[in-house]
């Protein structure tokens, strides 16, 4: 904790970094402008290089269109995709796998984390095992899950859950175990019970660390679902992408990728908004526009 | 504390209730790299009811260790601590602690931080809210009730920590370098405030610091401690008038006592 805040004692207060909503709006505005121009510039260059053959008449295009489409075709393909029931149904499947996988994996990681953190013998026994599993590339388990849970949605949920289980587990253990020494002494001096120390000190002080784990897990869950679909499936966004790629429908591939990115971004922003709300008291809240 | 009548908040200047603290023949040996390290060697000390006593000494003299033992947070290798005649072997409700770091809970606002001891001990009812309001007024924190720790300066955070200590009306207050991480101006300001509050509350207090001027300004007596092994070198009576005001620092007795302690510590 930063205690060196000299002189301000009689004034007492240090203004919060984003107290004015006005300046916040302006900051977000300029952020969008900046990022927007980068994206537009990138797309223009892409478009130009893709259309090189048409522009210059040269026989040497930078790349054939069936390999990599260009923005002027991807964007219409994107708008067509997001209005096509058939595409949306597949994405809905992926979304379900991600959501259920996240709830199961992150929830399980959190609960087991509490248990491991609070029972010292358990921690000693299991921590090395957890680290071993943590360092196993878990997507490699995909084929195993296909064998266990068959081709359907179950194996993708299992993969998503397994991947996002560990960051939450590890962060929960860390968050609950690493507490301020003096705060611990304070609770002891107040003769707080184990439950009181957990409820009033350990759990709330672990929240920022747990939340960081949850944010990682959210991204991981989406990866798990897609990879699961790549391995073996007949539905879902991964299946759509795979099929389109085999059929050299490069514009569709990139339209689907764009959709996935937007879903990922939406989840990330949602998590950030939630974090701001729940952890407003935390000093190092990430500043993301 | 438990048997205290409900009118507890107005205390008289006479320390009728404050207990005597008796530290007898405390020795504390730690193990460091396989070698025994004597942190405290045969330390004895009597703190009178209502007295403000400071342990002053360089790092490694065992003053914080002694405070932890008095608090019942650490069992000594040998010796005993008695508070009001009964031995202290574990944390007790009538002993209050304050640390160098404010250890405020970042997720609780000022009021709820101060309420923590009452919530833990289940003594919020019947007059918890009034007691909180009283200590906030005593420590002059009005207007900051709903602020969160991150919005407060270091000095203000320590004021809140002091409130949290006072609210459970401990009979013995233990303060471990509470102003150690503050700048000199804030520290002097809070020293004046603490002197005022200590005179108002008149509780038995043990204060740990490595700042000699702070020790003299605040205390009735100063226990000067030395290192290797940690022990008490001298007990110095401070003959300064109360109330202690900043002008006390101008008195000849103040300078003399500070210089005397420096001499005991071999700083000249």
Question: Topology of this structure?
Answer:
The complex is a heterodimer of chains A (about 290) and B (about 270).
Chain A: H1 21-50, H2 52-56, H3 71-81, H4 85-118, H5 120-134, H6 142-149, H7 153-177, H8 181-189, H9 194-231, H10 237-246, H11 250-278
Chain B: E1 21-32, E2 35-47, E3 52-56, H1 63-71, E4 78-83, E5 86-87, E6 95-98, H2 110-121, H3 128-138, H4 154-167, E7 172-176, H5 184-201, E8 204-209, H6 212-218, E9 221-226, E10 231-237, H7 252-264
Parallel strand pairs in B: 3-8, 3-9, 6-7, 7-8
Antiparallel strand pairs in B: 1-2, 1-4, 4-5, 9-10
Helix content of chain A: over 70%
What is the helix/strand order of chain A?
HHHHHHHHHHH
The radius of gyration over CA of chain A amounts to 24 Å
Number of helical regions of chain A: 11
Summarize the structure.
Chain A is built from eleven helices and no strands. By secondary structure, chain A is an all-alpha fold. Chain B has seven helices and ten strands.
Structure description:
The complex is a heterodimer of chains A (289) and B (268). With 289 residues, chain A is mostly helical. Chain A has two domains: 26-53; 70-288, MetI-like fold, CATH 1.10.3720. Chain A has helices at 21-50, 52-56, 71-81, 85-118, 120-134, 142-149, 153-177, 181-189, 194-231, 237-246, 250-278. In chain A, helix 4 (85-118) runs parallel beside helix 7 (153-177). The two termini of chain A are 25 Å apart. Chain B is of the alpha/beta class. Chain B has helices at 63-71, 110-121, 128-138, 154-167, 184-201, 212-218, 252-264, and strands spanning 21-32, 35-47, 52-56, 78-83, 86-87, 95-98, 172-176, 204-209, 221-226, 231-237. A six-stranded mixed sheet of chain B has the order 6-7-8-3-9-10, with helices on both faces. In chain B, strands 2-1-4-5 form a four-stranded antiparallel sheet, covered by helices on one side. In chain B, a hairpin with a 4-residue loop joins strand 9 (221-226) and strand 10 (231-237). The longest helix of chain B is centred in the last third of the chain and has 18 residues, at 184-201. Chain B is globular. The N and C termini of chain B lie far apart (45 Å).
């Amino acid at each position: 904790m930063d205690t060196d805040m000299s002189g301000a004692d009689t004034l007492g207060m240090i203004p919060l970094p984003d107290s004015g909503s006005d300046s916040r709006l302006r900051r977000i505005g300029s952020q969008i402008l900046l990022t927007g121009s980068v994206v537009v510039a990138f797309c223009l260059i892409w478009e130009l290089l893709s259309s090189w053959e048409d522009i210059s008449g040269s026989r040497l295009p930078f790349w054939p269109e069936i390999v990599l489409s260009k923005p002027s075709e991807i964007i219409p393909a994107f708008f067509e995709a997001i209005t096509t029931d058939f595409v949306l149904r597949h994405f809905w499947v992926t979304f379900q796998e991600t959501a259920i996988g996240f709830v199961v994996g992150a929830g399980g990681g959190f609960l087991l984390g509490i248990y491991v953190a609070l029972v010292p013998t358990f921690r000693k026994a299991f921590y090395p095992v957890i680290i071993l599993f943590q360092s196993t590339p878990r997507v490699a388990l995909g084929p195993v899950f296909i064998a266990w849970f068959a081709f359907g949605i179950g194996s993708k949920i299992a993969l998503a859950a397994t991947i996002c289980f560990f960051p939450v587990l590890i962060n929960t253990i860390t968050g609950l175990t690493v507490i301020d020494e003096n705060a611990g002494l304070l609770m002891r001096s107040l003769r707080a019970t184990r439950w009181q120390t957990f409820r009033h000190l350990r759990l709330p002080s672990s929240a920022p660390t747990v939340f960081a784990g949850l944010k990682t897990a959210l991204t991981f869950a989406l990866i798990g679902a897609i990879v699961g679909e790549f391995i073996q499936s007949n539905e879902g966004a991964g299946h759509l992408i795979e099929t389109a790629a085999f059929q050299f429908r490069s514009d569709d591939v990139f339209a689907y990728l764009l959709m996935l990115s937007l879903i990922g971004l939406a989840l990330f922003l949602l998590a950030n908004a939630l974090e701001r709300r729940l952890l407003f008291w935390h000093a190092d809240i990430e500043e993301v526009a | 504390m438990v048997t205290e009548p409900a009118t507890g908040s107005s205390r008289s200047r006479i320390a009728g209730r404050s207990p005597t603290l008796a530290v007898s023949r405390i020795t504390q040996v730690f193990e460091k790299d396989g070698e025994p390290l004597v942190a405290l060697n045969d330390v004895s000390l009597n703190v009178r009811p209502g007295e403000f006593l400071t342990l002053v000494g360089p790092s490694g003299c065992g003053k914080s260790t002694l405070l932890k033992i008095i608090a019942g947070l650490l069992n000594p290798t040998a010796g005993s601590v008695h508070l009001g005649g009964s031995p202290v072997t574990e944390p007790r409700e009538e002993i209050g602690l304050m640390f160098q770091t404010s250890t405020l809970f970042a997720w609780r606002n000022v009021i709820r931080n101060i309420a923590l001891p009452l919530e833990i001990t289940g003594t919020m009812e019947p007059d918890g809210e009034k007691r909180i309001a009283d200590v906030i007024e005593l420590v002059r924190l009005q207007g900051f009730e709903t602020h969160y720790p991150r919005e407060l300066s270091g000095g203000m955070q320590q004021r809140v920590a002091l409130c949290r200590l006072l609210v459970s009306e401990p009979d013995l207050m233990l303060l471990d370098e509470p102003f150690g991480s503050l700048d000199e101006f804030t520290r002097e300001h809070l020293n004046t405030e603490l002197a005022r509050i200590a005179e108002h509350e008149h509780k038995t207090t043990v204060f740990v610091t490595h700042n000699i001027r702070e020790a003299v300004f605040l205390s009735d007596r100063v226990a000067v401690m030395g290192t290797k092994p940690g022990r008490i070198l001298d007990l110095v009576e401070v003959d300064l008038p109360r109330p202690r005001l900043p002008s006390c620092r101008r008195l000849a007795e103040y300078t003399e006592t500070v210089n005397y302690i420096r001499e005991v510590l071999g700083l000249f």
